[in-house]
Amino acid sequence: MRPHKIQLAKPSFDEREIDAVRRVLASGRVVQGPEVKAFEDTLAAMLQVRRCIAVSSGTAALHTCYLALGIGPGDAVFIPSFAWPSAANTAMQVGARPVFVDVLPGTYNMDPADLKMRIRECLKRNWGTPRAVVPVHEFGLAAEMKSALAVAREYDLIVIEDAACALGATLHDTPVGTFGKIGIFSFHPRKAITVGEGGAIVTNDDNLAEKCRLWRNHGQAVIDGKRDFEVAGLNYRLTEIQAAIGKVQLEKFPEILAKRKKIAGWYFEHLSPATEYDLPENIPEHTWQTFMVVLGDHFDRAEVIERMAAEDIETGPGTMSGHCLKVYQEKFHYSDSDLPVSHRLHDKGLALPLHSFMTEDDVIRVSRALAEATKGANVVAG
Length: 382
Description:
Elements: H1 15-27, H2 34-47, E1 51-55, H3 58-69, E2 75-80, H4 86-93, E3 97-101, H5 112-125, E4 129-133, H6 145-155, E5 158-162, E6 170-171, E7 174-175, E8 182-186, E9 199-203, H7 206-216, E10 220-223, E11 226-229, H8 240-270, E12 277-278, E13 291-295, H9 301-310, E14 316-317, H10 326-332, H11 340-348, E15 349-352, H12 360-376
Parallel strand pairs: 2-3, 2-4, 4-5, 5-8
Antiparallel strand pairs: 1-9, 6-7, 8-9, 10-11, 12-13, 13-15, 14-15
Helix pairs in contact: 1-8, 2-8, 3-4, 3-7, 5-6, 8-12, 9-12
């Protein structure tokens, strides 16, 4: 009998989420009501932060942050290259220039030394006024925030934390997303908890939170008892249906997080040390949104993915590197070699299956299949 397919990701849903959706549908209120407020309040309490604004996606959260902070034309925003391009794309949407920063090879997070170099290069080449830095807590591991905050203070940069992958991650017992001026989270299906698509903004700045709420909801406010529009805003609202699912997911989150850490531990146990790939750093505070290995430079990742798929095991690229993408190479003249660590991860990072329904036997099967796939894969001509 053919073994079951092992998916790359799978949401941790059960009857509790279905019951929550039924409750909202029966209420007749499906947009921006008590479920959204309850979700926001629960998330704010979990993160020990004053304000939480639920939005329709992590990308919407980043866009809203830029707008609320007044970041726009003439500004430069410093973003790790090896990260999903939402932070760079939304910087472009507000007219700012994204400046890519290389990452550290073991953690995949922003390299603080390279950040300083890129800021100096930006000033020398007149790319724009350095305005903000967006540390990304890649794959659920806290970035080097002490160094990032020090660089931000030196150059008077706003810190916008992209914790899209990192709900539950901490640094010295402080939740990520709360170190900077403002932070964001994502609830996409590949994240530890999901509402389908969704996101959140967190901040301790009450005035900034209100600006975010304005931008989220068309720019409308009630002034002297009358509805008016203070900015030409957007519709980035989370639905009541999504918020109800999110509330259940938050209740289950400790259990989900514990299982993800257990699965990562199994991978470290069963993935034999090999010259064919590098393992990520095994750091206790990691929350493991993704478990990515880095193939040797001589391997063709696409063929490894095909060989794994032939064994009914779904794998894929870890994520993208912005400086390797067509839009940024054409507009800002980046070349692949400009940020060498990010380039290697872009080409050779391989995400392995990780979700709450996996068993240790599944991890053993993935590990054995990876060993066979790399043993038999063709090498890249060079």
